[in-house]
Specification:
Elements lengths: L1 H8 L8 H11 L10 H11 L4 H19 L11 H13 L6 H12 L5 H21 L7 H14 L3 H17 L4 H11 L10 H15 L9 E4 L24 E4 L3 H5 L4 H11 L3 H6 L7 H16 L6
Antiparallel strand pairs: 1-2
Helix pairs in contact: 1-4, 2-6, 4-6, 5-7, 6-7, 6-8, 7-9, 7-10, 8-9, 10-15
Length: 323
């Protein structure tokens, strides 16, 4: 029955070596971090030495397979409404930033949370810290994550081994301090931001990152907001009509200062209309707080785009992560 459950839970892991990575992350979250190619030999070695009981290990794999599926392929339907913030962070780390090195720790973290061995608050603190670090380190500054799998595995094992809630919380707080100390400096971040955060219909590679940032900002304004079926609106339109001025720098069109989240259905309604007509519609019909704040401006100048881009850049470095 355990094997049947494990196979069912890992059936979605179809990419090359994904099942090996699950086995490795499960093993690393409790015992030891080894390479994917050596994981089977290491497990057999542990069985033969008597350090790990085979029956117990299969039971652990069953438990972990259920959690791993929630992590590696985040789906809102697998999370309760009260855990939307957990889903949100995991989805950002895995689906938007494409980070795999933290999987052993994420597995250990969610396992402890589901067992009520750690609090919801400390779970969110851990996830926010990982999300914050990889947003800046990887999504913006494009730095490598080599070696971080060992770091995360170390803290995953410590979290697993500690017996009290207080001690487990201390492990998480220590990891948070380490990650905070390794965040790239503002100079590097500022220089990289516009190179990584942009979107227009002919350049869509970074669309999910732009949408992530704007959603993150909206969620800070309204913690109850669950943004589904939203779209991205160019405030200064991609195809401006005669009512619009000519940009001095065409790149400002695609930068985040010129982009806003738009409620489902409103995109086709406002199109490339003049700013004043867009403004009337948005202020009357939009339910997105941060978008309405943008359209409180009575006009939309190129300098407004530049200023808002810089403001968002700075906000996402520090402020959005404060609790």
């Amino acid at each position: 029955d355990s094997w049947k459950t494990i196979l069912q839970n890992t059936s979605g892991l179809t990419k090359e070596n994904e099942k090996d990575r699950f086995l490795n992350n499960s093993f690393a979250s409790r015992y030891k971090k080894v390479s994917d190619s050596k994981i089977y030999k290491e497990i057999v070695k542990q069985f033969k030495s008597g350090k790990i009981d085979a029956k117990k290990f299969i039971s652990e794999l069953k438990e972990d397979s259920e959690i791993y599926k929630m992590i590696i392929k985040p789906d809102l339907s697998n999370y309760s409404k009260t855990d939307y913030d957990i889903y949100e962070s995991i989805n950002a780390i895995i689906s938007i930033f494409k980070i795999e090195v933290a999987n052993a720790f994420l597995l250990s973290l969610i396992r402890e949370y589901k067992k009520n061995n750690i609090s919801k608050d400390i779970t969110i603190i851990a996830l926010n810290s990982i999300e914050h670090f990889h947003f800046i380190n990887n999504a913006i500054c494009s730095k490598r994550s080599s070696g971080y799998d060992l770091l995360y595995a170390k803290y995953a094992q410590e979290l697993f081994l500690q017996k009290t809630k207080q001690k487990k919380h201390e492990v998480i707080k220590n990891l948070v301090k380490v990650l905070l100390s390794r965040i790239p400096d503002k100079v590097d971040y500022n220089a990289s931001f516009n190179k990584r955060v942009y979107y227009k219909s002919t350049l869509t590679k970074q669309k999910s990152l732009v949408q992530y940032i704007l959603t993150k900002m909206e969620r800070r304004e309204n913690k109850n907001a669950i943004l589904i079926n939203i779209s991205l609106e160019h405030i200064y339109p991609e195809k401006p009509n005669k009512d619009w001025y000519k940009l001095t720098n065409d790149d400002n069109l695609m930068y985040i200062g010129n982009l806003a989240l738009l409620d489902s259905g409103l995109n086709s309604e406002i199109g490339n209309k003049s700013y004043s007509l867009k403004r009337i519609t948005i202020l009357k019909k939009s339910k997105i707080i941060t978008t309405k704040k943008v359209f409180e401006n009575e006009q939309w100048r190129e300098q407004d785009i530049i200023d808002r881009t810089q403001k968002i850049c700075q906000y996402m470095y520090t402020d959005v992560w404060r609790r």
